[in-house]
């Protein structure tokens, strides 16, 4: 029988591609979602794979024992559920608790209720690698050896810092859990920067787009009169991120490793140039800026480890932009 992986937060932008990537490879997937309504939407999204997909309701990932039942009987776990919001008002309940306790609670659930699981892949983030105090850091190539040095005090300074900190503390909590408890399973963390690409998951309307898709939508809906300046200088295609989850689950070498997953540096100017050329109907609602302006000197991400050990290949930037906009136009 094909192995079954548990994918938490199966309703999300990235998770939908992760679920799809596992289903396409013949795996059975058990997805966790917060409600029956969400379960029905996820089922609809993957209607071609009805026999391979089941859904499990976990209403609150921050609750003690949240995943105790969900982990029973599966062969591996992909933990993607975590809030990606940059404007939270209550950092503790909206960000830190679901991110950190969500992570430790699934690891504990696996150790206590499913000793057969050998690999857990966690959707981390470049947020836990970046040092925001160093700014654009021209010439610096971030690697998996870098850690965001954010402190608990700094974490509360604003919504962006709080999000970056939630991912940093959650990843640190995962490694600490493994160190302290020596479980049967190994953990792999994937660390993408901004993730763009086609929106596959159920979206009620454009107002409810996930954070990174909304970041592209604002380039085409007329809300930006100027080309925005980057907050982060690297991105990954969601399909590559999904494939990385499968590879990280399958490759023995990925045990206990962190991987930066990123296509290339980018600017919104590059994105707007591509949009204005490929979607002439959007020229009136996409800022012009300075077409062809070169990438300023900024940090880069060294992805050689993921290429070497996972065998990942990255989608060209232009394909990501075109496919993202195509999917947003459909919504
Ligand atoms: P989405 O908002 O689309 O998905 C987030 C998922 O997590 C949803 O399934 C959501 O459930 C679930 N979730 C969020 N908060 C809670 C909570 N309190 N309790 C239960 N479930 C919760 O975001 P993405 O797909 O973009 O993000 C997925 C993961 O990828 C996150 O871990 C994020 O940090 C990480 N990431 C994202 C990047 C990006 O640019 N998109 C970049 C780097 C990392 P529901 O649908 O019910 O709200």
Automatic annotation (TrEMBL):
Which family does the similarity line name? Answer: Belongs to the NAD(P)-dependent epimerase/dehydratase family. Dihydroflavonol-4-reductase subfamily.
Check the record and name the Pfam families matching this protein.
Epimerase
CDD domains for the chain = AR_SDR_e
| Entry GO MF terms | oxidoreductase activity, acting on the CH-OH group of donors, NAD or NADP as acceptor
- What domain of life does the native source organism fall in? Eukaryota
PANTHER family, A to Z: NAD DEPENDENT EPIMERASE/DEHYDRATASE, STEROL-4-ALPHA-CARBOXYLATE 3-DEHYDROGENASE, DECARBOXYLATING
Keyword field? Oxidoreductase
Supply the InterPro entries for this chain.
Epimerase_deHydtase, NAD(P)-bd_dom_sf, NAD(P)_dehydrat-like
Task: Return the protein name.
Answer: Cinnamoyl-CoA reductase
User: Is Oxidoreductase among the key words of this record?
Assistant: yes
NAD-dependent epimerase/dehydratase domain segment(s): 5-260
